[in-house]
Amino acid sequence: MAYKTLVRPVLEYSSSVWDPHTQILINQLEAVQNRAARFVTGNYSRKSSVTKMKKDLNWPDLATRRKVARLNLFNQAIGGHLAIPTQNILRPVQRSTRLTSPNSRNFTPIQANKNCYKQSFIPRTLVDWNNLPKEITTIEEKQKFKSAVNKLYNNTEE
């Protein structure tokens, strides 16, 4: 309980914007949760699986939680609920392909030459958004969208 109320909020503060993309940073953040899982279960044996401990505790990976947070923030932004001028940045897909229909809420990917921009909030989340099923991208109500995305990624916590 102390981990969820004291430690994890610090790890996740503004994470939808600063979500790391390098594996070393992802591993460093996940290591904090792994240590917390060992502490909470009281199991410090090197032979014990931390992944199983987190599953038993019903704790999804922090990377999954950050992805869900990014998608939720993006949904609010394109819905006009945030002061992010998405209409100036995003271009809807103009033609239908085998993966999109003309009425879907998919957007043209933003091309980036630099990894720092490519992995920033909007370009990175746009790729994840376009990969969501149409049934989810058409949900406009915040809580229903959040539940659907959590269910999709097996992120049982909300």
Provide a brief overview of the structure.
With 158 residues, the chain is mostly helical. The chain has ten helices and no strands.
List keywords for this structure.
mainly alpha, single chain, 158 residues, 58% helix, 10 helices, elongated
**Overall average pLDDT:** 88
Order of helices and strands: HHHHHHHHHH
Oligomer: single chain
Radius of gyration: 18 Å
N-C termini distance: 15 Å
Largest sheet: none
> Helix tally?
10
What's the total number of strands?
0
**In terms of structural class, how would the helical and strand content be classed?**
mainly alpha
What spatial form do the alpha-carbon principal axes imply? elongated
Low-pLDDT stretches are none
Helix content: 55-70%
Strand content: under 5%
